[in-house]
Amino acid sequence: MSDDTLQVELVAADRLVWSGEAKMLIARTTEGDVGILPNHAPMLSLMVDGVVDVQTTEGETWIAAVDAGFLSVAHNRVSVLAEHAEMSHEIDLEKARHDLERAKESGENDDEAQSAVRRHEARVRAAEQAS
Question: What is the rounded average pLDDT of the residues 46-59?
Fold first, then answer.
């Protein structure tokens, strides 16, 4: 690995979702969106439900919907650790939209219901950005 690339691993609790070399990664943290380029300063951050966008060294874009988790950056290695993560091409957009509407219509305002809405919104955004 050279100094102008990142080694990225996107990991869910049950599997390695994506791994490879990248030239940039964008993720949403509790402090806002963060962009990671090669030679980024070391950091550890809490992520919120959202979308992770990876720009590979081959010019491809990989998009994933992730639940809250952790983002770690050190020595051009980026680890995205989430309870659940799903690549955009694995998401059925119509089903994701339906699930989002159902979550919104539940009318519940507790933390768990709001978290479900954010998860479904992230899934819809990831699928829409990839299409």
Answer: 96
